[in-house]
Amino acid sequence: MSYLVEQVLNGVSLGSIYGLIALGFAFVFGVLKLLNLAHSEVFAAAAYLAWAALGWLMSRSVGTPVMNVLLAAGVACVGAGLLAMLIERVAYRPLRSEPRIRTLLTAIGMSLLLQNLGIRFLSARTRGFAPVTLPVSPRVFAVMALLASLLVVLALLTGTKAGLRLRAVAEDPATSQLFGINPNRQVTLAFFIGGCLAGVAGLTWGLVYGTVNPQMGFHVGLKAFIIAVLGSIGRPTGTVLAGVALGIVESLAGAYLPSSVSSYRDPVTLSLLLAVMVWRPSGLLGARKTHRV
Amino acid sequence: MSLEFVLYHCAQLGIALLLVQSLNVLWRAGLFSFGNHGFAAIGAYAAVIVLRLLVEGRSNWDLPHNGVRVAGHGVFLLSVIVGVLVAGLAGGLLGRLLRKLRDDYFAVATLVFAEIMQGIFSNWSYVGGPMGYEARYLFFANDKIEGLAYCGSFAALLTLLNALLYRGIAKAERWLAGGWVLAVESNEQAARATGIDVDRVRMGVLAVGAGIAGGAGAIVLHLNSMILPSDFSFANSLPVLVYVVLGGLRPRRCIVATIIVYIVYEFLKLRAGGLLGATVGAFVFQWRDVLLAAVLILAVVVPALVRRRLASVGARA
Question: What is the pLDDT of residues A264-285, one digit of tens each?
């Protein structure tokens, strides 16, 4: 029983990371109706920023471990947010009035560009995160980070003028422009917030799994994207729940499947996600309003 | 630079052209698939299974290098045909499965499918697993001109295949089925209203495109005598994406773009015989994937910026 509970907890922490990345996907899609496939590389870049910042802070014993983690989170969030804004400016804004496939192509190009730049500058080898002793275990930290991020996102969207403007642009960009809202600025803000969420996810991944490498983003990002679909794009709560559910399924599959089959964990997980994508493209909870996929 | 080297690269270029034509068939029909590397993998590994069933374990497995082996030709042809058919079947089934998805969702679903295929082949020990598969027999061998005959045969075969495919696709566009495809691509709802079975058309196009990619994958196995699961990764499909984007989805332009970019890249890799120096060649070789990704982005963004500029100039006029 305790083994089962442990695997479920492992799954919850993995799912928390998926949920954080998926939130970033869902945030940008909600505003721009754009699948930002480069988001997975923003997550990987954020993990590297967190690795570098935490390593520097811990080596110089700047503050307490908690303070160092929070500072590293700040660095990762701001860095990832700025990177996401740069990606939007370079790869997406010029194509705002173009067919969607062109935006998808630049998204893929940007994803591969960042991945390969990471390999060239940082080498493909896996790096270890600086060991940190926190008052809570990394798994609990992951869940806390997810809940905190979800609360911040919900508060931002429902309780601030910035959130109101974001929702207005998401609902109807043309009409919101008539009311004096600059859609470009809101889109940039959405990308920044999505990048910040990726920053939290990157730091959390490093603390939970202790390693980073330039190619970590692709498969994790692919799963997170489908989780965003699964959880009904545009509904943060649904996205988070879907992420945690997938994390638990993946963890239990890895623990209880026979060893001859457990190496197929990734293809099986992706197949399940693909099946849901085909069966319910609007998500398990259904979209807020009907939209063509 | 020997003749064998040139012929080997002609053969590699022929493979790239097959993959470009495969992607072109799909994209011109409005099926923006990013899973072509998955179909190539299916074709290649189907060919591996044919080799394992028909050739391995037989007494004549190690064919002596002293002449043409008809058995080698027969197994080669059979494995490629099986690769084409299995990949085509997979493409058709995928088309049926994804019939409700469009645009971004369809594209990502095909990408996920390809990653599933790569995950399966990477772990399947029968086809070599992560270590890949080495085909230790030769399609054609001769003691005196082994490499030359080998590369030359593949170069000739692939040139012929590409020419026939290009011609075949151009003719097919004038058939009734070709008209259906163009109708579905330009306006799906109108096509449906005129009685065209859109789902079946999409399935058919995906089957054809996947079959071509599968054939390319099967031929790669024989050309290189070895395949690895990583040969069919998404990152390795980047050059093909670049070629198709540079060609603007027009078949002839895609072929020209493929030939030019491939030759320029290989020329720079050779350090241009001292013209440009070793530094440029080494830089291009090491930063190839970064450069290709940058070219992909620029090839999409720059024309869009130009169109926007022209539109604003036109509006002012």
Answer: 888 888 888 888 888 877 666 5
* Alpha-carbon gap: A290 to the closest alpha carbon of chain B (Å): 14
Query: How many residues does the structure list for chain A?
Result: 293
Asked if the Cβ–Cβ distance from B102 to A110 is below 8 Å, we say no
**What would you measure as the largest C-alpha separation in chain A, in angstroms?**
61
Nearest alpha carbon to residue B245 among B166, B301, B300:
B300
Cβ of B102 within 8 Å of Cβ of A90? The answer is no
Tokens 């500058």, residue? A121
Per-position DSSP letters for B224-279, written without gaps between them: HSEE-GGGGSTGGGHHHHHHHHHTTT-HHHHHHHHHHHHHHHHHHHTGGGGTSHHH
Q: Which residue among A35, A90, A271 sits closest to B108, beta carbon to beta carbon?
A: A35
Question: Measuring CA to CA, which residue among A182, A218, A201 is closest to residue A141?
Answer: A201
Report the residue from B105, B119, B245 with minimal CB separation from A266. B119
Tens digit of each residue's pLDDT (9 = 90 or more) over A39-84: 999 999 999 999 999 999 988 877 888 899 999 999 999 999 999 9
In 3D space, the residue among A227, A192, A279, A236 whose CA is nearest the CA of residue A14 turns out to be A227
Write out pLDDT tens, residues A105-154.
899 899 999 988 988 888 878 888 888 888 888 888 999 999 999 999 88
Among candidates A94, A113, A278 on the partner chain, residue whose Cβ is nearest the Cβ of B98? A278
b/e sequence B5-39, b meaning 16+ C-beta within 10 Å: eebbbbbbbbbbbbbbbbbbbbbbbbbbbbbbbbb
Name the band, by pLDDT with cuts 50, 70 and 90, for residue B70: very low
With a CB-CB cutoff of 8 Å, which residues 30-49 of chain A face chain B? Answer: 35, 37
Q: Are B212 and B21 in contact (CB under 8 A)?
A: yes
What one-letter code names the amino acid at B132?
G
Of A42, A196, A23, residue with least CA distance to A115: A42
Which position has the higher pLDDT, B281 or B7?
A: B7
User: Nearest-CA distance from A286 to chain B in Å?
Assistant: 16
Compute the distance between CA of residue A133 and CA of residue A112 in angstroms, rounded to an integer: 35
